[in-house]
Amino acid sequence: MTDKPIIKVVNLVKKFGNFVANDHLNFNVYEGEIFGFLGANGAGKTTAIRILCGLSHPTSGELEVAGFDVYKQSEQIKKNIGYMSQKFSLYENLTLRENIRFYAGIYGLSKKEINIRMDNLLENLHIGHLRDQLIGSLPLGWKQKLAFSVAIFHQPKIVFLDEPTGGVDPITRRQFWDMIYQAAKDGITIFVTTHYMDEAEYCDRVSIMVDGRIEALDSPAGLKQHYHAENMDEVFLKLARAS
Amino acid sequence: MKKFLGFVKKEFYHIFRDPRTLLVLFGIPIAQVLIFGYVVTTEIKNIRIAILDQSKDDVTREITQKIISSGYFELQQNLESSEYFEDIFKTGDVKEIIVFEPDFAKKLGKNETAKMQLIADASDANTANLIVNYTSAIIGDYVQKENKLLNIPMQIKPVVRMVFNEKLKSVYMFVPGTMALILMLVSAMMTSISIAREKEMGTMEILLVSPLKPAQIIIGKVIPYVSLAFINAITIIALGYFVFGMPINGSLTLLMAESLLFICLALSLGILISTIANTQQMAMFISLFALMLPTILLSGFIFPIENMPVILQGISYLMPPKYFIIIIKNIMLKGTGFIFVWKETLILMAMMMVFIGLSVKNFKIRLQ
After folding, report:
1. A68 and chain B: CB distance < 8 Å anywhere?
2. What are residue A87's phi and psi, to 5 degrees?
3. For residue A240, what is the DSSP state?
4. Which fold has domain A34-55+81-242?
5. pLDDT, tens digit, for every residue of B137-182?
């Protein structure tokens, strides 16, 4: 983790009619860190992440992702980010190899490059034998892990994970976080939303959203100390009740 | 461009690995053409009739013989009294009863009017109408020939010709209609479902986050269906031509070009539907109710638009298949060139533009 900001958000506001989903958000995410974006359902996490990925337009505010302006340079941003949502899995009726070829292909990777990286990936995960299996025949845990591998296959600067571990068993969740750590070690900045408070402990820094506002932003240890809490669960409950 | 080709390839994988999609794409069109061609028919053939001949003379026998040998009718039974008419119809075996009054030939000989009665089972009104018309025509024919022998001075003889479909074959009606129906089904329904599937699976978001442009995504999804629908169009025309003898009097190139235009129109409708529908199921329902039923009912495919209430006639002007059917009939049956169908072509193009415009607008709203 460096002190060079890779995401800059100043006074981000997003309104749907009269409803304010994001109320003047201000934060920086630094290169190489694992940034946790916490909040209850409906607190505005997904709205913010969608704006940063270019899936939704902000109402107002200044935003920079990977050094590019969200309003004017969304094409460059798209080349430099990866995205994975809870819903996302790979195409069920394509094989693992076809899925990887397809997704890597739309990011413009060459065939040769794709093959080299694919061999590495399959070897690292010890799943060479699954290469030509249809994704639909794999268990959910594997699908999620592979979806993550595909999301970072084009080696983006930042990867946005929107509740990536939803509906996954604890063991797979743990393995999933190992993969996140590995990606962070490889220099990819991780922006992750979750509502599992134990996962918050894995993050370098955590922001907690309540009703569209960021109520707290610090390292897990810092937050626990500040709110005199045993764990992140308590921190979160204290913040949520206060509002 | 390479990205784009990869996308199209992936779309073909989806189609060829899903048996249900394949069935809808290739099974249904062929089945539908054959069903419409063979089963649904407005011609009559071997209709069973009963005859109550109260005269039993040369003339009645001759008329009976003429009716039966026409090929349209088959004598089921000879009746002896008029008491059981309703019961006979109730069994459903007989569709028409022909009654000759007593002393039929004698009355004719005396230059009086001889009466015969046609009683038809009108529980199926259209068929009853057809049967009675055919019977009357045969009798009229007989009378005219007799008159010639008798040399009656004044007679008017209308000579009827059914231009463009001399034998009134119903296939000529159904091939264009089926083509409109199938191209609509394949293009609009299949694309809207396949786009909705990406939304449902969450893969659409991934594609939108990727460097692919939205237009590339949509065109990439649509191209496989354009080519498959085009193959379908060719299959239907070939089936009509080789199996049912449907002529292609006009330019085949023009026919293909118009089909392609209609396919693109249907696809733009499919895209529009997919901007509204978020699930495959919803896409299917909208396609079925908003496209299939109007295509069958309001396009002039089966029911003549001229006979509809004014409101429905008005609505039929908004139905793209209506124009497509007019175009195809013009080209295939009348053998006319572009000059005679440019208005309809223009309307189809305008409709396509509107649908594409609406899709783009809807898509932008969704991004807000």
Report:
1. no
2. -70, -25
3. H
4. Rossmann fold (3.40.50)
5. 888 888 878 777 666 666 677 777 878 877 777 778 788 888 898 8
- At residue A235, what is the residue type? V
Q: What share of chain B is helix, strand, coil (3-state, %, to 5)?
A: 70, 5, 25
Q: Which residues, 6 or more positions from A106, have their beta carbon under 8 angstroms from its beta carbon?
A: B3, B6, B7, B207, B210, B211, B212
Mutating which of B8, B205, B219 best tests the A interface, going by the most A Cβ atoms within 10 A? B205
For residue range B272-327, what is the model confidence (pLDDT) as tens digits?
Answer: 998 888 889 999 899 888 888 888 888 887 778 888 888 888 888 888 999 999 99
Q: Where are the alpha helices (DSSP H) in A81-217?
A: 96-106, 111-124, 140-151, 170-185, 197-200
Domain positions in chain B: 2-40+169-367, 47-150
CA distance A180 to chain B (A): 19
- Residue B208 has its nearest CB partner, among A55, A79, A103, at A55
User: Which residue in the set B10, B202, B368 is minimally distant from A88, CB to CB?
Assistant: B202
Q: Which residues of chain A have pLDDT under 50?
A: none
Query: Per-residue pLDDT tens for B217-269?
Result: 888 888 999 999 999 999 989 988 898 888 889 999 999 999 999 999 999 99
Class for the domain spanning B47-150: alpha beta
Pick the residue of A15, A46, A106 with the most B CBs within 10 A to test the interface with B by mutation.
A106
